[in-house]
Amino acid sequence: MKPAPFAYYAPQEVDEALELLKQHGDEAKILAGGQSLMPLLSLRLARPGVLIDINRVANLAFVRRGANGGLAIGALTRQRALERSAEVASQSPLLSATIPLIAHFQIRNRGTIGGSLAHADPAAELPAVALVLGAELVLRSASGERVVHAKDFFLGYMTTAIEPNELLIEIRIPGLRQQAGWAIEEVARRRGDFAMVGVATAVELNGNNTCQDARIVLFGVGEKPERMERAEQLLRGQEATQTQPAEAAKAVSEDLDPVADVHASAEYRKEVGGVLTRRALEKAFRRAQKAIS
Ligand SMILES: Cc1cc2nc3c(=O)[nH]c(=O)nc-3n(C[C@H](O)[C@H](O)[C@H](O)COP(=O)(O)OP(=O)(O)OC[C@H]3O[C@@H](n4cnc5c(N)ncnc54)[C@H](O)[C@@H]3O)c2cc1C
Q1: How far apart, in whole angstroms, are the C-alpha atoms of residue 223 and residue 264?
Q2: Range of the domain at 196
Q3: Smallest CA separation from ligand 1 atom 27, residue
Q4: Mean pLDDT score, 137-154
Q5: In sequence order, which residues have a C-beta less than 8 Å from that of residue 23 and are 6 or more positions away?
Q6: How big is the chain by its Cα radius of gyration, in Å?
Q7: Beta strand segments in 83-231, E
Q8: Which residues line ligand 1 (CB under 6 A)?
């Protein structure tokens, strides 16, 4: 099928894009990499009256060192650019390791970090990683700018805190501490497919091998990426022994109330969510232990 008719604008400056959003916000869609939006348009599952193509907007694609460590990434930065960035690999190895799990390189050549976060597919990797890393999202409209923490950004099924007149401009990713470890694990039917279940985690140990902090986010299980707070709590303040990941994984499995769909049953997701959590935590602890040894 072909998309329903729409008016097309290709602004060259952020301010021009914001002015267009001010005029047409309610009926407009931003076009970034088009890897999620174009199929929706072609199937007529989305019928925006106006398309604002931001691909020619200057200064929206960049990777910079953040003010106090970490990274500042422009929303239009292609996923493939992140995958190849030495800066991302050194400042945010979890983000770097995540990108190759997204689709195939042809899709990552066009797909952007901002598009993936704004699209907020519950099975997508980047929203889960943004939550684990405590990312901040910079949203700008013609009347000002605000910064939204990832925990307040993902509201529900493909729904975010972005208002119709706002553009996602930048993603700020705090650096991991020296003694931190991380991992991402997922199960997909074929390489490059969306995950049926996935988990991203980051842990922090002190010199006594005690877990100072743990963040565990499951994706592909519900309406949005889910932080598993009881399991995290079980790890904090405890020595990072071999049994800890299994106990936290059991809590994840118990607490998950996943969706069932054509890809997997709820029982499968509960079981596999636990198994992946154990594996991810084991890897994350090993990385943290190596970092402080
Ligand atoms: C075959 C296939 C397999 C895929 N597999 C995976 C996968 O395994 N994992 C995964 O995570 N993704 C997967 N994707 C999706 C891919 O990662 C997309 O690139 C991504 O979801 C959307 O990014 P985009 O830049 O293409 O955004 P677009 O498709 O251009 O836009 C997506 C949505 O975000 C909005 N938007 C985009 N940029 C902004 C902005 N700066 N401010 C406000 N709103 C904005 C758009 O209006 C639209 O609603 C797959 C896609 C395909 C086609």
Answers
A1: 15
A2: 180-292
A3: 115
A4: 98
A5: none
A6: 19
A7: 136-141, 144-149, 154-156, 159-160, 167-173, 180-187, 197-205, 211-219, 226-227
A8: 29-37, 75, 102-103, 107, 110-112, 114-116, 118-119, 124-126, 162, 167-168, 194
Query: Last residue of some domain: 129, 151, 173?
Result: 173
Residue 50 pLDDT exceeds 80: yes
**Per-residue pLDDT band at 67 (split at 50, 70, 90):** confident
* Nearest-angstrom CA–CA distance, 208 and 215: 19
| Tens of pLDDT, residues 77-133 | 999 999 999 999 999 999 999 999 999 999 999 999 999 999 999 999 999 999 999
Residue with tokens 């007529």: 44
Sign of the dihedral through C-alpha 117, 120, 125, 129: positive
Q: What is the pTM of this model?
A: 0.97
**Separation of alpha carbons 216 and 234, rounded Å:** 11
102 assigned to some structural domain: yes
In a domain, 58, yes or no: no
